Amino acid sequence: MLGEQIAEERGKLTVLRVLPSEGGHPRVEVSFQAAGKILGIDSTDMGTYCSVLGEDGVLRGEGQGVIMTGQGDMVTWSGQGIGRLTGQGTGSSWRGAIYYKTSSQQLGRLNSVAAIFEHEVDGEGNVHNLVWEWK
Q: Pick from 2, 5, 29, 100: CA 20 to 30 A from residue 114's CA?
């Protein structure tokens, strides 16, 4: 069941890198930086994910990153998802699961959360991320 929204952020792709193909399928590494809120706290997120475009036109990917707050708290995350190209430049649309790890007392509840995300990239490389707790 979909629970409370725990994060929202907006940002920009910072690096796109083509990697050696995997079984003849294109593979791309993407990094982004975004700012927003996690559990209501202002934060900055830096992440990188690797995706492979399958014969079926579906993107499959996994990534990791770090979120930092202005108070110095840090959260690491890892996730996996599936996506599709939107046909607009670097545009893609992703859905998946994400897991957090932190030693922050203020954000500690993230350690026990399984979350689901929407990751949207438009044709100009702008990123919009939404994350909900999965209950």
A: 29
